Amino acid sequence: MLPKIPLVHQQSHSRSSKNILTHIISQLRPGADLGRVTLPTFILEPRSMLERITKGVKKPLNPILGETFTCYWDYEDGTRSYYISEQTSHHPPKSSYFFMAPEHHIRIDGTLKPRSKFLGNSAASMMEGIAILSFLNRGEPGKGERYIVTQPNMYARGILWGKMKYELGDHSVIRCPENNLSADIEFKTKGYFSGTYNAIGGMIRDDRTGEILYELSGLWNGEMFIKRVASGQKELLFNATNAKHTPPLVRPLEEQEPHESQRLWNSTVQALIARNHDLATEEKTKIEEMQRVEASKRLEDGVEWRPKLFRTVQGRPQGPGEGEEDLEWILNAKINPYNPTVAEQQILSVAAILPGQKPHCQFEIPPHSSSRSHKSEKASSSGQLAKMTAETHATQQNNTSNLIDFDEGNNNGQSDENKILKSAGPSVGSMDILGGDGQDDTHAQASPSSNYHPPNMANIMTPLQPTSSPAQTRSLHSRNSAASDNGDFVGAQS
Q1: How far is CA 231 from CA 214, 215, 226, in A?
Q2: Hey, CA dihedral for 328, 332, 338, 343, is it positive or negative?
Q3: In DSSP terms, which residues pair with 186 in a beta bridge?
Q4: What is the 3-state secondary structure (H, E, C) of 90-112?
Q5: Closest Cα to residue 357, out of 407, 288, 431?
Q6: Whole-model pTM?
Q7: Which of 466, 419, 476 is nearest to 102 (CA)?
Q8: What does the pLDDT look like over 399-409, one tens digit per residue?
Q9: Are 100 and 107 in contact (CB under 8 A)?
Q10: GO terms for biological process (predicted)?
Q11: 239-278 burial, b if ≥16 CB within 10 A, otherwise e?
Q12: Average pLDDT of 147-154?
């Protein structure tokens, strides 16, 4: 338990904090970008942005390049889901993440690119980037039914005067290419003299005809309603107040690697919790200085940094392949969309997620030598986040080297022999898994119809039921990654 802080000290700290914050903001003009402004630690949330993606309130700690965070959820029905994230860019900041609930056939790939703006008595966090939600047992085999989602922005009101209040504002757009539907949801901010907090309004449109099929209303943190325009029938869509929250679970701190969020920022977080802002600033500065030193060393050695757990998507925005919109990065593995058992083992081969599971770096994408320099021999000393051995350097010129290859076969759901590489972790190491040919896996396909009818939202919103299917046992073996092809790797949009 933390010691109680005397009231006099709290009041003094409050005045001091207000003065510091006011001094910083006084140097800004409305609309200014806060991305490169160093903020005092007292307004920082004691966790990194990679962890905050799942839930957030205050400004999180800025992740460093190559920082990772993993967690998992255990549900009451005995199923489990997994989350993997990595900071794939520092300037501008970009966080890439992956979520999957294999037995519920749900996968999410996303990239978050937050920008901060000063708006007078408010500060805004502009949540750029997208997430691609895929229902893998619907739509086209191997691709699923995709929902491409943008996020609303976040606003902190009353940072100089008045009561501090957080709001979601602006629009979230959801587009489903398979159903030719799009939803535009407005998160309404409260006005000075009217309105209410947390209100939403929106519509669902048929992209082929432009017809508005449904209207949405209510509160995003309470009851949300949907009304069919043709009939005027209105019904409850979702009640957030009754939704049960399942907290994420993480490996113990002592099992985490130095670059993992909770271990990396542990000293800073503990100082923030203890309200020791001098120590918090000191610990935070140490990490930022370490990052600057490593960046300088990479520049000196001509080493181009690459993510460890994610790779660039194939194709281009709004083009063929995986290049949907602004996703940019996708998990560096091919995950079986049909067999939950295989998918789980493949996910656990990418990164350590479960307690007792040991991380491994055998299949990370190594840093690449810059074309302007040939000093790759010195790159092995470029720091914790830029390690490179002579062995990995021998294959580093090929972007597809050291990728994890999980070959899942053709698009009919009949996979060839699954190729799962042996992991160092106890959960996936030295063991056979259920590979199978996928013939018994249930994979619903959308049937074409010549007579189009507006989709039934009740059917679209029907919860996906967890399923499992028997499969034949296959031996684990790895493939020569240097000979692999990027075309063998499929993500949410393949």
Answers
A1: 10, 12, 12
A2: negative
A3: 171, 201
A4: CCCCEEEEEEEEHHHCEEEEEEE
A5: 431
A6: 0.67
A7: 466
A8: 333 333 333 33
A9: yes
A10: lipid transport
A11: eeeeeeeeeeebbeeebbeebbbbbbbebbbebbeebebe
A12: 94
